[in-house]
């Protein structure tokens, strides 16, 4: 066989662990017991059973692990980790009887984080988000999506996105950004939502694109945020500008946002507790992923679960994410997200791991490069001190993560 030559890059083989490739179709979890992986520079050159390793790889450097499990590095495909302040007081108010919607309507909620985020410098935002990022990284995170949406004016939305990109540069984790200007109506636009949407469409979007600050455009389509017609304007403009689309849809009520976004070709619709069959069918037709956020469901003490069975029936891929944010999901553990996906939303442990690997890659439009362990993909792997993948999401509060390979090299 021919082995592609990668000049100036390390070529090596790793053996001694089991491996959950998360490739669909074969064994559950794409499991390969006693696996070998050959790395050529930043990519996977070969993966299979160690006993099947082809002879041409025998001459490559070899490392042998004393056991453990290799999986794709985890992907958090929906976060708001860049923000100022916190909302612990608001949480206390909720536990004294106020609802998330009451607080939002009284000018608290997202708007209180907007105030704190506007007051923070770009460096402050990087430093506070760094702690959250490090907690996620300690559980094998390789890629993260980070949204704006607490700036709500040109200057502060750009500041948030620059902070998010700086986090990627400083940490080595792959960061993808989403512009979420249509997250909430800023106070100075009270009663003038259409004017604010005009600002988002005519000024903010062109500015963040001009400076290359965002990969995707997101929005919040909800009775406490923006209507379907308003969000449509934002997503249509973003599509024209070449951005990938995603949407916070049907979290607290059904606004038809998922169907609209899917018809525009959205990569993902997120939350989805109230999505109906029409929305799910539109998502299935468009290949739009469902990103479920059990942390927000748990933290807001919601009772209506997303229709997982219907998503399965229609073949909509299900991703899971932390939704890490100060108001509805102050959560920085993807292992806990996986556990919650199983215990709260009845996913199987295999679906939960796929949700933070293969399906999360799909939700970010990165299926070609990450999310499964197969030839030609980027060599982003996590090594765990477990024997079977179900052990990852099973214990609460334990962290079996041992180490990580990023772009073909050990980190940590
Ligand atoms: O994904 N749903 C809208 N946005 C966030 C909440 C943001 C906040 O409360 O600060 C979410 O849950
Ligand atoms: Fe969110």
| Largest sheet properties | 8 strands, parallel
Structure ligands: N-(iminomethyl)-L-glutamic acid, fe (iii) ion
Residues in helices, as a percent range: 25-40%
CATH fold call of the largest domain? TIM Barrel
CA gyration radius, whole angstroms = 21 Å
Number of structural units classed as domains: 2
**If you average the pLDDT, what whole number results?**
96
Broad structural category: alpha/beta
CATH H level, superfamily name of the largest domain: Metal-dependent hydrolases
Low-confidence segments: 1-7
The number of helical segments is: 15
**Percent of residues in beta strands?**
15-25%
User: Briefly, what CATH class of the largest domain?
Assistant: Alpha Beta
CATH architecture of the largest domain: Alpha-Beta Barrel
In short:
This protein is an alpha/beta fold. It contains 15 helices and 18 strands. It has an eight-stranded parallel sheet with strand order 8-9-10-11-12-13-14-15.
Report on this structure.
- The chain has 412 residues and is α/β, with parallel strands linked by helices.
- It folds into two domains: 11-72 and 372-410, Urease, subunit C, domain 1; 74-363, Metal-dependent hydrolases (TIM Barrel, Alpha-Beta Barrel).
- Helices cover 36% and strands 21% of the residues.
- The protein is built from 15 helices and 18 strands.
- The protein has helices at residues 88-95, 100-105, 110-119, 122-137, 154-171, 193-210, 228-240, 257-263, 277-286, 294-299, 308-313, 334-345, 349-355, 358-363, 390-393, and strands at 11-15, 18-20, 31-32, 35-40, 43-49, 61-64, 69-72, 74-76, 141-147, 174-182, 216-221, 244-249, 268-271, 289-292, 318-320, 381-384, 401-406, 409-411.
- The strands form three sheets. An eight-stranded parallel sheet has the order 8-9-10-11-12-13-14-15. A six-stranded mixed sheet has the order 3-2-7-16-17-18, with no helix packed on it. Strands 5-4-1-6 form a four-stranded mixed sheet, with no helix packed on it.
- Helix 4 crosses helix 5, helix 6 runs parallel beside helix 7 and helix 8 runs parallel beside helix 9 (277-286).
- The longest helix has 18 residues, at 154-171.
- The protein is globular and about 70 Å long.
- The chain starts with 10 loop residues before the first strand and ends with a strand.
- Mean pLDDT is 96; it is low at 1-7.
- It binds N-(iminomethyl)-L-glutamic acid (NIG) and fe (iii) ion.
- N-(iminomethyl)-L-glutamic acid (NIG) is lined by residues 109-110, 113, 220, 248, 251, 296, 323, 325-329.
């Amino acid at each position: 066989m021919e082995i592609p030559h990668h000049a100036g890059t390390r070529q090596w083989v790793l053996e001694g662990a089991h491996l959950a490739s998360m490739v669909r179709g074969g064994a559950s979890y794409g499991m390969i017991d006693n696996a070998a992986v050959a790395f050529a520079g930043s990519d996977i050159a070969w993966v299979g059973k160690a006993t099947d390793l082809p002879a041409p790889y025998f001459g490559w450097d070899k490392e042998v692990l004393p056991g453990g499990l290799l999986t794709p590095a985890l992907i958090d495909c929906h976060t708001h980790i860049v923000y100022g302040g916190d909302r612990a007081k608001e949480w206390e108010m909720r536990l004294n009887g106020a609802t998330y919607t009451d607080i939002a309507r009284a000018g608290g909620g997202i708007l209180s984080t907007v105030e704190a985020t506007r007051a923070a410098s770009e460096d402050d935002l990087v430093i506070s988000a760094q702690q959250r990022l490090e907690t996620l990284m300690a559980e094998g995170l390789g890629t993260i999506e980070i949204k704006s949406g607490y700036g709500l004016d040109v200057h502060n939305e750009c500041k948030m996105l620059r902070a998010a990109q700086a986090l990627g540069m400083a940490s080595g984790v792959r960061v993808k950004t989403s512009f979420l200007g249509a997250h909430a109506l800023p106070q100075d636009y009270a009663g003038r939502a259409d004017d604010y949407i005009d600002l988002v469409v005519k000024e903010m979007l062109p500015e963040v694109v001009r400076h290359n600050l965002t990969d995707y455009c997101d929005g919040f389509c909800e009775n406490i945020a923006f209507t379907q017609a308003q969000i449509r304007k934002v997503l249509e403009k973003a599509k024209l500008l070449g951005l990938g689309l995603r949407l916070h849809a049907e979290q607290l009520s059904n606004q038809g946002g998922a169907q609209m976004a899917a018809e525009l070709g959205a990569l993902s619709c997120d939350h989805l507790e109230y999505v109906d069959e029409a929305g799910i069918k539109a998502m299935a037709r468009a290949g739009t992923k469902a990103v479920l956020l059990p942390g927000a469901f748990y933290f807001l003490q919601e009772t209506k679960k997303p229709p997982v069975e219907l998503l399965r029936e229609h073949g909509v891929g299900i991703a899971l994410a932390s939704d890490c944010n100060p108001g509805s999901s102050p959560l920085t553990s993807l292992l806990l997200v996986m556990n919650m996906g199983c215990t709260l939303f009845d996913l199987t442990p295999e679906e939960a791991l796929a949700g933070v690997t293969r399906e999360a890659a799909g939700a970010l439009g990165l299926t070609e490069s990450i999310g499964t362990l197969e030839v030609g993909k980027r060599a982003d792997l996590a090594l765990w001190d477990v024997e079977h993948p179900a052990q990852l999401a099973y214990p609460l509060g334990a962290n079996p993560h041992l180490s990580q390979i990023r772009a073909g090299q050990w980190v940590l």
